[in-house]
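Team,

Forwarding the record for the chain on the shared tracking sheet. I've put the sequence and predicted structure together so nobody has to dig through attachments.
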Amino acid sequence: MDGIVFFRTERHDDIVSFYRDLGATVWLEQPDCTILQAGGFRFGFCDRDSADTEGIVTFVFDDRAGVDELYERLGDRADDEPRFNETYDIYQFFASDPEGRTVEFQTFE
């Protein structure tokens, strides 16, 4: 079974560009929705009058190098430097997309 998470957005083009710049590709283009794919993770943004900004969009990498690479690219949007989280045994950092959605970049250790 596969799945897709959808979000309403007021800034469709900016949001799609942001996630494409992170390495996501367009999986399917619909009249007012774009479904992106990053590895096995599919997520869509639909142009609406309000935006869904709750929750966390999490990208999982194979190792710390992947997390660090995205931190270097997104440093100005990052909440803090990558760190090891002992509670969950992960290396991670958080950032915000152009609409204020929380985006997490992590690797399990």
